[in-house]
Amino acid sequence: MISEYFRPDTLEEAVALLTNPNKDLKPLGGGTKLSRQQTGDFGVVDLQSCSLDKITLDKQRIRAGAMVRLQNLLDHKDIHPEIKRASRIDSSQNIRNAASLGGWLISSDGRAILSTVFLALDAMLNWEPETKHVSLGDWLPMRSIQSPGVLITAIDWQPQTNLAFDYVARSPKDRPIVIAAVAQWPSGRTRVALGGFGDSAVVAMDGTETEGADIASKDAYSEAGDAWATALYRREVAAKLVLRCLERLEASEESEV
Fold first, then answer.
1. Domain 162-256: which CATH class?
2. What is the pTM of this model?
3. N or C: which end of the chain has fewer CB atoms below 10 A?
4. Which of the listed CATH numbers 3.30.465.10, 3.30.70.120, 2.60.40.3880, 3.30.70.1150 matches domain 55-157?
């Protein structure tokens, strides 16, 4: 239960509050998850006034502040269509208008398409204090154990990356049980991320060749069984979805020639 509320005017003030050893404070973004937490008493630091709600683009990276709402991703012209599609599938418009991107990445599990897509893009997280840059892929497996800081301030990735994802769910309104997302860079680098299972999405392949991506996906999900699907089902479907994504990327490249 929320017992204290702070709304600092600057990022520096927010970090000072969150690093205060005498207080049990958590950052508050959209509040779609934190406001529902019923166990224990804690305070919150509202980040609405800390100027973390901008999307910027330069030649090398696109950066979204941690307080960017999911709906802002849909409304921005420089955001890849597949990121927008993932956001639409993951959440309703009411949730998109409230949920922040930073909060979504922190709280989402392995069945979130948007997090799987950002993992395929090799997105970087910017943490405070000390302005640490940590890849999403390095952080996800460790997020329940340790944190690089007290606050994510931004997420950034390369905008020139080609991207495709596909997924399978038991019904049109059910959450995915298998997700495959594939990103390709102009250099030829190809990165495959799988979701639909567990606490977070995983990287199945990251290299310069696409051959064997389906086998790598089978291996990555060889033990991905739970109440929603068997490991055998997931590994076979993951391989097929990855090949489908690669076909889409190849077709899009041919259409641009």
1. alpha beta
2. 0.93
3. C
4. 3.30.465.10
